[in-house]
Design goal:
By secondary structure, the protein is mainly beta. It is 1% helix and 45% strand. The longest helix has 6 residues.
Length: 485
């Protein structure tokens, strides 16, 4: 087990500015040196591998042992998609100390000869059921050809070891025209041993190895698989969102489950022509029979993202601009969804929008801005609801970037909360930063992940986040945990 002191990184920000912000919460370093550093699999020019760079973290709290936290992330990010492999971190003291282990989803995984023999892995996700069974999933794929798969594994010891390695779907045929992308897994909160995986499947052209050409795929239906025996076996994948017309797809599928009646809600974005700021939609479907049948997609709102760039230089960031994040109140079933949106500033830059439903998705509130308006972009939102109904949203922003600064990109992570069912937000907490986003690995822009982790221990929210190690080009990023009431 490792115990790291909280890290503070101030990159040319005046002390008065730091003191004037909301109280910062100590963040504990989770990730260590790369276990894949010596792996040479998966690369070819012009690919760049960022050894020791961790990105795209996700977190789950074990309801059977609430101080047991399990997080997952990409380890050693490639410039053109995916990573050497995926890693899991685990804590049994509420996030004070952490251990880590590799996940069996790529050929780089050491000491796991039964690991999936794909060259790269991506899109880590984890969820824990009421009996303490933890489920994790991966997109595993090759750089040298179009072979790709969705893999799953299970832990029954709090994240220390992983087994029951399964392939939910694989496309390994020569010249494969499918790319399985952006998967997630959700454990049923009231049915031990039951969990659900969802993902989109891009039909040729598929943009392999990193599904870059989302809006040019001929189709991108959503697929679903289910386990009822704790991940020992999974059902055959089935399509739950289909498109007859071409050039339409889903992305960012993620299920939340009602603890009241067991209803499943799958949230995602829909892309349709002409692929502009008004054509992408935040949508969902639901199932009242544990995934046997699903409704047709219902649109929640336009997703008016204009992507994220350095305001001073125009350099691109890759963020979760097309990925909505949902949450459900475990006590009431009220639904929430957040996403990046430019509607609050006339389409100039992304901020954080939220909509909520109190009637099972029949109607949705008009989107509101959640972030503190600073005249700068806010991005990569996460949302959760704690045991007393408080809603928390975390996000990154550039509020500390000074005019004329073209050498660094000071970035902070914040959390804001609502105690009135998402009608308004306040009580902003400074979670982490400032750190220099220009140190992040470059993958179609500065990249720390399409999403960041957030979960709940009782009334305490735990952020699971990536920061850059400003200016350190041999250890560009690390994963941190930040519990706060």
């Amino acid at each position: 087990m490792r115990h790291h002191k909280a890290a503070v990184r101030l990159i040319g920000i005046p002390l008065a500015t730091v003191l004037a912000t909301s109280t910062a919460w100590a963040a504990t370093l989770v990730s260590g040196p790369s276990p894949f550093a010596s792996c040479t699999i998966g690369g070819s020019a012009p690919s760049i591998n960022y050894v020791n760079a961790e990105v795209e973290p996700w977190l789950a709290v074990n309801p059977a042992l609430p101080r047991n936290l399990i997080g997952v992330w990409q380890q050693d990010r490639w410039s053109d998609g995916g990573a050497h492999g995926l890693v899991a971190g685990f804590s049994f003291d509420g996030g004070t100390t952490w251990g880590e282990t590799t996940l069996p989803f790529s050929a780089c995984a050491p000491g796991t000869p039964a690991a999936l023999q794909y060259e790269r892995a991506s899109d880590p996700w984890v969820s824990v059921g009421p009996d303490g069974t933890a489920y994790t999933v991966s997109i595993s794929f090759n750089n040298s050809n179009n072979s790709n798969a969705v893999g799953a594994a299970v832990s029954r010891d709090g994240g220390k070891t992983w087994g029951n390695l399964s392939v939910l779907i694989a496309n390994n045929e020569p010249g494969a025209k499918f790319f399985n992308d952006k998967e997630s897994v959700t454990a049923n909160p009231i049915k031990p041993g039951v969990a659900y995986a969802v993902w989109d499947r891009l039909e040729n052209p598929n943009g392999n190895p990193y599904a870059d050409l989302h809006t040019e795929a001929f189709r991108g239906p959503a697929l679903f698989a289910k386990t009822v025996d704790g991940g020992r076996t999974w059902s055959s994948p089935k399509i739950i969102v289909n498109f007859v017309a071409s050039r339409r797809q889903t992305i960012g599928n993620q299920i939340v489950v009602s603890s009241q009646d067991g209803t499943l809600y799958d949230f995602f974005s829909i892309f349709t022509p002409p692929f502009n700021v008004a054509s992408n939609k935040v949508a969902f479907i639901k199932s009242t029979d544990d995934g046997a049948t699903w409704t047709e997609p219902q649109i929640i709102a336009d997703q008016r993202t204009v992507t994220v760039r350095d305001p001073n230089t125009g350099e691109a960031l890759r963020t979760g601009d097309i990925i909505p994040e949902p949450a459900i109140d475990p006590a009431t079933g009220q639904l929430y969804v957040v996403w990046q949106d430019s509607r609050f500033n006339g389409g100039q830059f992304d901020e954080i929008a939220l909509s909520t439903s109190t009637n099972g998705g029949n109607t949705w509130s008009t989107p509101i801005r959640v972030n503190t308006p600073t005249g700068r972009a806010a991005f990569n939102p996460s949302v959760r609801v704690n045991s007393v109904g408080t809603v928390a949203v975390t996000y990154y922003d550039f509020r500390d970037l000074q005019a004329g600064n073209t050498t660094t990109l000071p970035t902070n992570i914040w959390r804001t909360t609502s105690t009135n069912g998402g009608q308004s937000f306040g009580g902003e907490l400074h979670v982490a930063g400032p750190f220099n986003m220009k140190t992040a690995p470059v993958s179609r822009g500065f990249f720390v992940g399409d999403y960041q982790g957030l979960d709940v221990m009782g009334t305490t929210f735990v952020s699971f986040i990536v920061q850059t190690n400003s200016g350190n080009l041999t250890n560009r990023t690390d994963v941190f945990a930040a519990p706060a009431p």
